[in-house]
Each structure stands twice: as structure tokens, then as C-alpha cells.
Design goal:
The protein contains 9 helices and 6 strands. The protein has helices at residues 22-37, 63-71, 74-90, 107-117, 122-134, 143-152, 157-166, 170-182, 205-221; strands at residues 11-17, 43-49, 61-62, 102-103, 190-193, 197-200. The strands form 2 sheets. A 4-stranded mixed sheet has the order 2-1-5-6.
Length: 222
């Protein structure tokens, strides 16, 4: 099948997500695995913040308190997380929800990703932050933790720490979150290709690939 003939130079995929969303981690992992299998499809990834907990205190909150507030009971949350963990195994993600002691405010993590995008380093940083939170139980609301994760992703730690301390980009994160809601996005992850084709949820790779093919066909017709 020659469905990729006369394809555009590059497709833009916007990923609307939040770091505290395990479904986002699954969805992002599936997308990146798909793209790794399809090097014939040139893409540009654009990471867009979505705040599932816009009123979260700056320092976050104890995980137990968060689960009770969000789910009503710890047992209900644990059952949900167990099913997510089972799905993660198939994607090579070893969720370790028990290791998470605090649910963080994710604004600073999103700020740092926006800054890393200027140097083309956003995607490895996104992957590293997700793993730190959901596998290692690190507090990704901490500036010190984020600076270390930046260094592990190939970004200068001192520059990352200086940027985080400046507070720069916080308003932009909140503005992008508001924009996503105004677009009608009320759940994440959400993937938008070329600003025209959108799909929400941690979709199976086959579903994402069909959307990718549709975007390629549409782009060729323009």
C-alpha cells in the first residue's frame, strides 16, 4: 500500500495532557511507540498543558487526602489504579502507585516542558517526568526534583532551576489550559493532528495509526 506517497513534509501532533494523569502516560507511551514503528511519517510533537487539578495547592497534597477527595474512598481508587497498572504492563510501564506519597501541582512541570521545547528537548523530558512520578514516586512538584529530571534529560540543571525559580511561563500554562477547555476538551489525553483531526483517551495504537493515516490523506488533498 502506497498510502504515504506525496505526504506533507511534517505533520504536527498536539498532545493535550497532564502529568498526574495515568491515562496520559499510557496514551503518550502508545503514541511514541507507534511513531517509533513509523519512521516514514515525519511528525512534530507539541505538548499542551491541561490541569486536572487547577486548584491544587502549590506544594501539592498528601496522596491519601487526594484520593479520598477525588474518588470518595481509597479502596475505589486502588481498584481503578490496579486496572490501569495491568494495562501499563503491556506498554512497558510499571506503574507504582503505592510509591506516590504526594499528588503534586503540575504547573511547574508543564512550565519546564514549554521551556525545554524551545531547545527541542520537550519529548525526552515529558517521558522522564512521567516515569519519575508514576514509577519512582518522586515529587514532580518540587523544583529540585524537576531540575534533576531536566539534567537527566540532557538539559542544564542550573538553567532549569533558575527558570523554575523565576516563575516564568505560569500564566501561559494557565492560558493554554483555559484554551483547551474552550475548545471543548474536558478529558485527557487528547491528540490533535494538524489542528483538524482529534481523538481523546489512551487509544490503542491501531486507532492512533488510523487517525494518522487519515491526517496524511487529508493533507495530500489540500
Amino acid at each position: 500500500m502506497n498510502s504515504l506517497a506525496s505526504r506533507p513534509a511534517r505533520l504536527t501532533i498536539e498532545i493535550v495532557f497532564d502529568f498526574v494523569c495515568p491515562w496520559c502516560y499510557l496514551g503518550v507511551r502508545r503514541l511514541l511507540q507507534l511513531l517509533a514503528r513509523r519512521p516514514d511519517v515525519p511528525v512534530e510533537l507539541s505538548w499542551r498543558p491541561f490541569l486536572l487539578n487547577p486548584d491544587m495547592p502549590r506544594s501539592g497534597m498528601p496522596r491519601t487526602d487526594y484520593m479520598i477527595r477525588k474518588f470518595g474512598a481509597e479502596d475505589r481508587a486502588r481498584r481503578l489504579y490496579a486496572s490501569i497498572a495491568e494495562l501499563g504492563v503491556h506498554e512497558g510501564v510499571t506503574f507504582n502507585f503505592a510509591a506516590i506519597r504526594r499528588t503534586p501541582n503540575s504547573v511547574d512541570a508543564h512550565r519546564l516542558v514549554r521551556e525545554a521545547a524551545r531547545a527541542g528537548m520537550a519529548t525526552p523530558l515529558v517521558e522522564r517526568i512521567f516515569a519519575a512520578h508514576f514509577i519512582e514516586g518522586q515529587d514532580i512538584g518540587s523544583h529540585a526534583v524537576l531540575a534533576t529530571l531536566a539534567a537527566e534529560s540532557g538539559i542544564d540543571a542550573a538553567q532549569a532551576a533558575e527558570f523554575l525559580a523565576s516563575g516564568e511561563g505560569a500564566e501561559a500554562v494557565h492560558a493554554e489550559n483555559l484554551h483547551a477547555h474552550r475548545l471543548g476538551i474536558n478529558g485527557v489525553p487528547c491528540f490533535l493532528i494538524e489542528g483538524e483531526h482529534a481523538i481523546a483517551g489512551a487509544q490503542e495504537p491501531e486507532v492512533l495509526e488510523r487517525l494518522l493515516e487519515l491526517a496524511l490523506c487529508t493533507a495530500r488533498e489540500v
